[in-house]
Amino acid sequence: MKKIKKDYNNSKIITDILQYNCKKGANNSVLGSILLKEQKSFCAYSEEFIDPISDANDIEHFNPDLKCSDDDSYSNWFKVKNKVNFRKRQKELEFKKNNISFDDILQPCENDFEEKLKYIVGQYRFEESSEVKVKNLIDFLELNIPEKIEQRRNFIIRKRKEIEIFGVSPEDFFSTLIEDDITQISYLRAIQEEFKIDIWNMIPELK
Fold first, then answer.
1. How many whole angstroms separate alpha carbon 207 and alpha carbon 19?
2. Is 58 helix (H, G, I), strand (E, B) or coil?
3. CA spacing 20 to 30 A to 165: which of 98, 126, 132, 175?
4. H-helix or E-strand containing 125?
5. Is 120 helix (H, G, I), strand (E, B) or coil?
6. How far apart are alpha carbons 90 and 139 in whole angstroms?
7. Under the phi-then-psi rule, with left for phi > 0, alpha for psi from -120 to 50, and beta for the rest, what region is 95?
8. How many of the other CB atoms lie within 10 Å of CB of 141?
9. pLDDT at residue 100, as a whole number
10. 29 burial class (0-12, 13-18, 19+ CB within 10 angstroms)?
11. Could you tell me the mean pLDDT of each successive run of 10 residues in the chain, 207 residues long?
């Protein structure tokens, strides 16, 4: 998982003073579209590409205790796949049952997010940490469950083979893939660390 970048100066959510409408049946599509655009159409938590037409997706409140409160804000809102949101809600119930505060979870926008949440190259998982917030994040978003590790592993191994077959550099391979079919790209942090490329900045801004 990569740090989620928020533009606190220029985001239209900030400049247009947009708020999440908590009324039942309220239309938050403008807010959601901006979040998805800023995330370059990638799910904040799973790092899978979100097709806005075919993939059910939600505006997610990272800290559920802040939802619809005066403290809920841009830094707490993310676009995620519906299936990812569903699993997170189950973890929220588990955390509440165990009296784990949502303030004790590493926030995806923190400046040193990627320094604290360390990815282990070749193991396709994130390093276990003694720091409570990091440990809770890994548990909260199920970043190290076996099926997710296996999904990253299979993706990276497949892309390594394709790069070898085409005889190109990782930069050239992913540049072509972004241009031809960006939906085939997932697991941005794994790509970044395994291939040593700045995949995020290779992906163009959405219009």
1. 22
2. strand
3. 126
4. strand 125-126
5. strand
6. 12
7. alpha
8. 24
9. 96
10. exposed
11. 95 96 93 97 97 94 95 97 96 96 96 96 96 97 98 98 98 97 96 98 90
